[in-house]
Write a structure and sequence with these properties.
alpha+beta, 4-stranded antiparallel β-sheet, 3-stranded antiparallel β-sheet
């Protein structure tokens, strides 16, 4: 049996992307920022959201201050770093010397926790600087090895196609990574057609006839391939029965279930994929970094992105309003020039061939599975594991209290829009429910029943209507509302 995100959608009409229809991930409005002085003032998708980090008491319990901490491998600086992070804050981190997104996230987690652990306050930027090294050395009572000499990077050459390490049957374009671009005028509108091997996608930009016209806004595209992944494929990256149902609901809302869907009109500059991973907010660059790092998707990343001059890096990059940020960002090389961060996304949206690379990449089963794995860990799991608070007792992850498929789907959708609001709104509405139900200890999950969950979900939905156009009233209606109906992965 194969899974389609929407069996009712055709392969040639994945999404019209009406700006007044499916919503995009947006930066917070002034009204939202005014709700809480602790709200992010610039970016709702800060790459290292402190709410994503483990409970500090749990982290502290892993640290022994009675002597040196055992480190798994100190043969190189990279392995020493991973071993120290594994011992201090990330017990599941692999010690393999490959500094990728997971290591960087663990490093940022350590920086966030450093003062509590006794290493002093550190800037949370995921960069291994002098102060961070000193804190790691102090807390592990070890010495960082000298930096590993860096060999010069090889030129970006087309990668030899490889079958993705996944049960899915690859839909590859053949040995060539050359993208052929041609333009055809259809009913007075220029249609850009991009071909790789036997695959072709096509799209048009908005025309001045459209009431919301802006230059280089992608209208709709043809050529999306669906039904390429089976239930077993999706389960292989950690999805349970209810997770898959929540995924379908979210993907249909965001992209019509098309993994190559691209949006170039809202304030994220470029958003891509079945969940519309956002450019300016940073999630798209982090996704690309994961695709580049993973053994399952590395060859596909080289084929569709690196060989076209699209890559990712970490460091300082141009952001919005003339500001500079430090973090994972896109790097596009073209005509001897390099475009980083927001400059890269602005350049990409004007280049039909590069847009075609993203559209075609969405037809690759390995890339599709990579998107699903990233969304589960960075969106779904983080959303339902958010820690909520109670006046009546200790709190915990929201999944202990909201246990229906649709209830958690609403939480995931809220996280998809503005992650910080999951805890902010949940705590406010929990406090309201505690006042409405005096004498009940709502911190006890067994006190939550159908009526209490329904009341909570209604408060979230009503608040959503109040602060932003659109609502959750017609979202995920096929999912069960029964308290206790959510069934996650057994792995």
């Amino acid at each position: 049996m194969t899974t389609t995100l929407d069996d009712t959608l055709t392969d040639t009409t994945p999404s019209g992307f009406d700006p007044d229809g499916p919503e995009a991930i947006e930066a917070p409005t002034d009204a939202l920022e005014a709700m809480d002085p602790e709200a992010f003032s610039d970016d709702p998708w800060a790459e290292f959201d402190p709410e994503h980090f483990e409970d500090l008491e749990e982290i502290e319990s892993q640290v022994s201050f009675g002597g040196p901490i055992h480190l798994a491998d100190t043969s190189t600086r990279e392995r020493w770093l991973q071993s120290a992070l594994r011992a201090l804050v990330a017990p599941k981190l692999a010690v393999d010397g490959d500094i990728g997104p997971r290591t960087i996230e663990a490093l940022a987690k350590f920086q966030h926790c450093s003062e509590k652990l006794g290493g002093g306050p550190l800037k949370v930027d995921g960069v291994l600087g002098r102060r961070t090294i000193a804190a790691l050395e102090q807390l592990t009572q070890s010495k960082a090895p000298a930096p590993t000499p860096q060999a010069p990077s090889p030129p970006a050459t087309p990668a030899t196609p490889a079958t993705p390490a996944t049960p899915a049957t690859p839909a590859t374009p053949g040995p060539s990574t050359t993208l052929e671009l041609r333009e055809v005028v259809v009913k007075g509108v220029t249609e850009h057609r991009i071909r790789a091997g036997d695959q072709e996608v096509s799209f048009s930009y908005w025309t001045p006839r459209w009431k919301h016209y802006k230059p280089f806004n992608v209208s709709r595209y043809k050529g999306a391939r669906k039904s390429l992944l089976s239930d077993a494929d999706i389960a292989s990256v950690g999805y349970g029965t209810s997770d898959l149902r929540i995924l379908r609901a979210n993907a249909l809302k965001e992209s019509g279930g098309a993994f190559g869907a691209i949006n170039t009109w809202d304030d994220q500059i470029v958003s891509w994929g079945m969940a519309q991973f956002a450019g300016q907010a940073g999630t798209l660059a982090v996704l690309l970094a994961r695709l580049k790092q993973s053994a399952r998707t590395r060859a596909s990343f080289d084929r569709w992105f690196r060989s076209q001059g699209i890559d990712v890096d970490r460091g300082d990059y141009p952001w919005k309003g003339g500001k500079t940020r430090t973090g994972t960002h896109v790097v596009i090389t073209a005509d001897g020039k390099e475009y980083r961060g927001n400059d890269g996304w602005q350049y990409l949206r004007t280049q039909p061939r590069l847009i075609g690379a993203f559209l075609l990449a969405g037809n690759d089963p390995a890339i599709q599975l990579g998107q699903l794995e990233f969304w589960r860990t960075s969106f779904l799991s983080r959303a339902i594991e958010k820690q909520v608070s109670f006046a009546s007792g200790p709190g915990g992850p929201i999944r202990r209290y909201i246990t229906s498929e649709r209830g958690l789907a609403i939480i995931v959708r809220l996280h998809n829009w503005l992650p910080a609001n999951v805890v902010r709104w949940s705590n406010r509405f929990i406090a309201e429910l505690e006042r409405e139900h005096p004498g009940r200890d709502l911190s006890d999950p067994f006190e939550w029943d159908q009526a209490l969950e329904d009341a909570f979900v209604k408060k979230v939905s009503d608040e959503r209507k109040r602060v932003k156009k659109g609502s959750y009233d017609d979202y995920a209606l096929a999912l069960s509302r029964a308290h206790g109906s959510y069934v996650g992965s057994s792995g």
